[in-house]
Design goal:
This protein is an alpha+beta fold and 299 residues long. A 6-stranded mixed sheet has the order 1-2-10-4-14-3, covered by helices on one side. A hairpin with a 2-residue loop joins strand 8 and strand 9. It binds fe (ii) ion.
């Protein structure tokens, strides 16, 4: 961890430092199974939980996660182990809900930021405040982002989380009533050109948000049905989300657990450090997974 990150003083984000005891439990378990075995196991409703989940240290960790989640809809977890995605998967068991799969039976995805792609998931360009998989009939309820390698420049690749309630309140405070109405009262289309997915409805409904500027823009191009001033609304939403969020620096091993319904998340521009141009470079690397529904902790 660099001094910049260590000195970070988060005001609105709850941080949990994973204890060495919990970290050790994850590392031991990660050595016992392959990631495919664990993914299969967690997708089988009849399978039992791994042994470490009965340990007191794990219960303490789950209590911390549950309290933070209920209070603030997002958490930064520091000092998790880094491996091939196993620890991402195991730590996410602290958010009890079904995992979302992709390509059939995979849960954890790996991304390395690249200067050679336009893909929003791993381009080095600045991202948007957004929710994930926003054109799905039912988007996932939670996103886990686990940083394995931080950006070569510790000031870059910054994350942010804007809570939906803070965003709406800010729009009211600055008199952006039309943009608030755009979010809460205007029927819009969203199109994901890559997945051939489309959805239409209200961006904010039942205290949940689904939002991505690019899927709104794609729908505007495709369906020609967006409200006027789309770009002005998107600019205002970005400015308000920036105003109500704070920079979060993730070092290697740090993770963000974030609601995909009650918050937008964002990643700033990244850098790469070439070791051998053009193909070999150091860059931010993350594991990502999603949970299908709201986590439920049994008391
Ligand atoms: Fe995302």
């Amino acid at each position: 961890m660099t001094s910049t990150q260590r000195e970070q003083n988060l005001m609105n984000t709850i941080e949990i430092i994973m204890s060495p005891a919990v970290s050790h439990l994850l590392e031991i378990t990660a050595k016992t199974y392959s990631i495919d075995e664990l993914e299969q196991c967690f997708l089988d409703p009849a399978s039992s939980q791994p042994d470490f989940t009965s340990e007191p240290a794990w219960h303490d960790f789950v209590d911390q996660v549950s309290n933070a989640w209920k209070t603030n809809h997002h958490i930064v977890i520091r000092n998790m182990p880094t491996d091939n995605g196993m620890s991402t998967l195991l730590a996410a068991l602290s958010l009890p809900a079904r995992f979302k799969t992709y390509r059939g039976q995979k849960i954890v995805k790996h991304f390395k930021m690249s200067p050679w792609t336009e893909e929003l998931s791993h381009t080095i360009k600045e991202g948007h405040f957004h929710t994930d998989i926003n054109t799905a009939p039912i988007p996932p309820a939670a996103t886990v982002i686990h940083c394995i390698k931080s950006d070569p420049d510790p000031k870059m690749g910054v994350s942010r989380v804007a809570l939906l309630t803070d965003l709406i309140n800010h729009l009211e405070e600055v008199g952006a009533t039309e943009t608030r109405k755009f979010l809460t009262e205007t029927q819009v289309g969203m199109v994901d050109d890559r997945k051939h997915d489309a959805w239409s409805g209200l961006i904010v409904e039942n205290d949940a948000i689904r939002f991505h500027p690019e899927t709104l823009r794609a729908a505007a191009r495709r369906l020609n049905s967006q409200p006027e001033n789309l770009e002005a609304h998107l600019t205002q939403i970005h400015e308000s989300a920036l105003a109500v969020s704070e920079p979060i620096y993730l070092a290697s091993g740090d993770a963000i657990f974030v609601s995909n319904k009650r918050a937008l998340h964002y990643r700033g521009a990244c850098t790469v450090k070439f070791t051998r141009f053009p193909r070999e470079f150091q860059a931010r690397e993350i594991y990502v997974l999603h949970l299908q529904e709201e986590p439920q902790w049994s008391v």
